[in-house]
Amino acid sequence: AYITIGYRAADTVEALKSAPWEEPEEVFPPAVFPYPIGLEGRLLEVRVHLVTPSESAKPKLQKVSVTAHKL
After folding, report:
1. Which residues contact 23 (CB under 8 A, 6 or more apart)?
2. Nearest-CA neighbor of 37 among 51, 20, 23?
């Protein structure tokens, strides 16, 4: 099982709705954390897809943490 992630950022809700999704091609979870995403904005939207090759597997996401850095 693995996860895929997507994220986007903007300064307003309206701009966030039209911002393109960034979807890294790396396998998650990566070997090193924290994972820098290099986006700027007051708002961040993240989507996570849990992927498993078996219908009987039940992947579980326990936590997503974000740390912002002032530029």
Report:
1. 4, 5, 6
2. 23
State the sign of the Cα–Cα–Cα–Cα dihedral 24, 29, 31, 33. Answer: positive
**Res 27: pLDDT:** 67
pLDDT reading at 64 higher than 80? yes
Query: What is d(CA 48, CA 12) in angstroms, rounded to the nearest whole number?
Result: 22
Rounded Cα distance, 15 and 32, in Å = 31
Confidence check: pLDDT of 70 > 90: no
Work out the angle at residue 36's Cα, subtended by the Cα atoms of residues 31 and 40, and round it to the nearest 5 degrees. Answer: 165
**Whether pTM exceeds 0.85:** no
